Amino acid sequence: MSLSLLRPAARSALRHSARPTLAVRAFHASSLRRYPGDGGLNNILSGGAAPAVEVKTITQNGIQLADGLVLSSACIFLDGKVFLWNVPEKLWDGWKPEHFEIFDTVVPKPEILLLGTGERVEMLLPALRQYLMKAGVQVDVMNTRNACSTYNLLAEEGRRVAAALLPITPRRWEGAPSA
User: Which candidate, 128, 58, 44, places its Cα nearest to that of 88?
Assistant: First the structure.
């Protein structure tokens, strides 16, 4: 087919389609959550939604939050708050549904519960997974480092996320009653 038989616009389109194109990858960055009238500021005394908990780093000493607080033992992040979590030191030995009761009573329920199992991924006992499913909570099990980074990401997106985290080095809270 001769290009001279086509209309000028069609000739141009045909010429451009025959050229090799470079793949362009769009850049994506998380945007700051801004609410109308807040000027980009978050007033923690206003009685609105609590600011999300943010993990800065994880070490053998514990989980360090962005505000400098170091959590040396098991904890739960839920609804912008940190709860100390009294659980048995040995993973899954002596664990009962009562250790997850907070997720049965909280309203609204988190969209997802990130369960950080310490240094390595250790699958949740079927009875505990079934208990959480009946409570309406989806569970994703991973090591604590990945659970913390996933929590930060989902919380930044404004998702209703909770994290139940075991430390890298197992230890109990000082003065905690036996689990």
Answer: 128
pTM of the predicted structure, to 2 decimals = 0.69
- Upstream peptide bond of 170 is cis (omega within 30 degrees of 0): no
| 127/117 Cα distance (integer angstroms) | 17
Using CA atoms of 150, 151, 153, 159 in order, give the dihedral in degrees to the nearest 10: 120
Q: Which residue has the tokens 């659970």?
A: 147
8 Å CB contact between 85 and 164: yes
Q: What is the largest CA-CA distance in the chain?
A: 89
The SS3 call for residue 57 is: strand
Distances (CA, A) of 89 to 46, 83, 137, 169: 39, 17, 24, 10
Q: What is the overall mean pLDDT for the chain? A: 80
**Percent of the chain as helix, strand, coil, to the nearest 5:** 25, 20, 55
pLDDT in tens, 16-47: 555 555 555 554 444 445 445 555 555 444 55
